């Protein structure tokens, strides 16, 4: 206090000198509750005030467990036990708020908060009757500095939600249903059950469906825990479903007509939580497959794409491949051995019995052409034009086939001779379509001494099922 009193004398003396010299200076304007001992007493709640803390100071005796820059003080002594909330929401600077019990120089921290939302601070705690709570409001961050801004300070009692107790469960009528509650004042009543979580703050809802249906319960924010019970009192409840705190998972189950379901919502935090109840949405199913144009020799890879918006997940997969075979794998591999249009169906089921299906017609076509022989002369001479006939067999579907012909070279493998594209109708296995090429023998061929031709057949845009027989080498032509 000595440092502060000296500072005030200096400011006052400076003001007197300024007036004597004909000038003016601002008077010292520290807030009335600048000191711990001058705390503004909150006589009743709800309480709200706005003060200017621009000239607030930090006293050396102010506690340092929570930032004390530009500290000002408030006090409140409840006459009964209650859950209270204090905040600085609406202030124009980065505030810090703390609550203390005890005497100056020996204070015990109850709570400290900075940036509850943006620059605002908020505390909530159980206040005991007859205990004086001291609230210190400062600015972030650090200790020992002066200053502030426009501070808005509020204190209020937070009451339990109307459905805090089991007996006061809010009945849910028609679906969809949405209802928000502030869980700051919520309690756990004596005898309230634990399930997959141990609750501290709960609220209750009840729902009796008129028809048997799958329903989904969820909260927003999604971290609240939920348990579903049947029964008529806390002593005879039987749990049927549960989701843990912080699982962020909805709760979906099959509700029987005429049965009353009790929802225990547990929010171990100080937020407002919205309870939502609706008829469960249907799952979504689809699938893809590869290759996209399969033949009877392909092993087709099926990939399911499923989703349950109700969050229960998929419990079973049922595939019907349209050829008399089935599978229960999520992503099966299957060979359809007969050409034709096959309707493949995927049906998925959730644990509560909801289903979804998807179908695709898979066109199985086995395209297969083969070069069965090449006709070339036995010998040839330089400058002679010789004929090369390529015979292509096709027993499946009419095709348009491109045949490319190449010749051998002594140093660079094979070089192109020419290409022909023509229809190759489907025919019996002993019939072929001839592709006729000509080639004029060169001196390079003579240097090598012999000439070999290579032919390849391509039924594009169809994909050949057995490409191994789409290429053939001729017998060597001796060059003389």
Kindly describe this structure.
This protein is mostly beta strands and 480 residues long. The protein folds into 4 domains: 36-157, Jelly Rolls (Sandwich), CATH 2.60.120.380; 166-279, Jelly Rolls (Sandwich); 284-364, Sandwich (Immunoglobulin-like), CATH 2.60.40.10; 369-479, Sandwich (Immunoglobulin-like), CATH 2.60.40.10. Helix content is 5%, strand content 46%. The protein has helices spanning 2-20, 443-448; strands at residues 40-42, 47-52, 72-76, 82-87, 95-103, 106-114, 122-127, 133-139, 150-157, 170-172, 177-182, 202-207, 213-220, 225-230, 238-243, 251-255, 261-266, 272-279, 284-290, 300-307, 316-320, 326-327, 333-334, 340-349, 355-364, 369-375, 379-380, 385-394, 399-408, 414-424, 433-440, 450-451, 453-458, 471-473, 477-479. A hairpin with a 5-residue loop joins strand 21 (316-320) and strand 22 (326-327). The protein is elongated and about 125 Å long. The protein starts with a helix and ends with a strand. Residues 407-427 are annotated as: Disordered. This is PKD domain-containing protein. It comes from Micromonospora coriariae. Residues 303-364 form the PKD domain.
């Amino acid at each position: 206090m000595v440092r502060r009193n000296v500072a005030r004398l200096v400011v006052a003396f400076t003001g007197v000198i300024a007036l004597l010299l004909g000038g003016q200076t601002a008077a010292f304007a520290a807030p009335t509750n600048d000191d711990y001992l001058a705390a503004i007493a909150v006589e009743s709640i709800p309480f709200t005030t706005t003060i200017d803390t621009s000239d607030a100071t930090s006293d050396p005796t102010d506690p340092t467990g929570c930032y004390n820059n530009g500290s000002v003080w408030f006090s409140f002594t409840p006459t009964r036990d209650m859950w209270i909330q204090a905040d600085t929401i609406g202030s124009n600077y980065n505030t810090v708020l703390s609550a203390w019990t005890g005497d100056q120089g020996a204070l015990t921290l109850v709570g400290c908060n900075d940036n509850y939302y943006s620059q605002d601070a908020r505390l909530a705690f159980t206040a005991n009757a007859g205990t004086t709570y001291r609230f210190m409001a400062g600015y972030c961050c650090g200790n020992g500095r002066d200053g502030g801004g426009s501070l808005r300070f509020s204190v209020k009692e937070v009451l339990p939600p109307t459905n805090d107790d089991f007996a006061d469960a809010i009945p849910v009528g028609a679906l969809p249903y949405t209802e928000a509650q502030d869980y700051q004042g919520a309690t756990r009543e004596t005898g309230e059950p634990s399930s997959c979580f141990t609750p501290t703050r709960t609220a209750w809802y009840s729902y009796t469906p008129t028809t048997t249906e799958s329903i989904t319960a969820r909260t927003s924010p999604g971290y609240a825990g939920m348990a579903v019970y049947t029964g008529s009192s806390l002593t005879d409840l039987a749990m049927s479903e549960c989701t843990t705190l912080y699982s962020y998972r909805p709760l979906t189950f099959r509700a029987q007509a005429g049965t009353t379901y009790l929802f225990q919502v547990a929010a171990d935090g100080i937020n407002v939580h919205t309870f939502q109840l609706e008829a469960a949405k249907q799952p979504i199913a689809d699938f893809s497959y590869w290759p996209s144009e399969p033949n009877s020799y392909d092993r087709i890879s099926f990939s399911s794409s499923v989703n349950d918006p109700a969050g229960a997940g998929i419990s079973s997969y049922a595939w019907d491949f349209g050829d008399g075979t089935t599978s229960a794998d999520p992503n099966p591999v299957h060979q359809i051995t007969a050409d034709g249009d096959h309707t493949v169906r995927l049906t998925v089921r959730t644990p509560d019995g909801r289903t979804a299906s998807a179908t695709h017609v898979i066109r199985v076509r086995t395209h297969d052409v083969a070069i069965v022989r090449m006709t070339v002369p036995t010998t040839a001479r330089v400058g002679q034009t010789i004929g090369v006939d390529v015979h292509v067999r096709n027993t499946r579907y009419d095709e348009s086939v491109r045949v490319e012909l190449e010749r051998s070279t002594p140093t660079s493998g094979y070089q192109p001779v020419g290409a022909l594209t023509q229809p190759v109708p489907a025919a019996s296995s002993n019939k072929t379509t001839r592709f006729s090429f000509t080639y004029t023998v060169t001196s390079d061929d003579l240097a090598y001494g012999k000439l070999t031709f290579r032919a390849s057949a391509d039924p594009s845009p169809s994909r050949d099922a057995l490409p191994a027989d789409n290429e053939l080498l001729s017998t060597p032509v001796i060059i003389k």
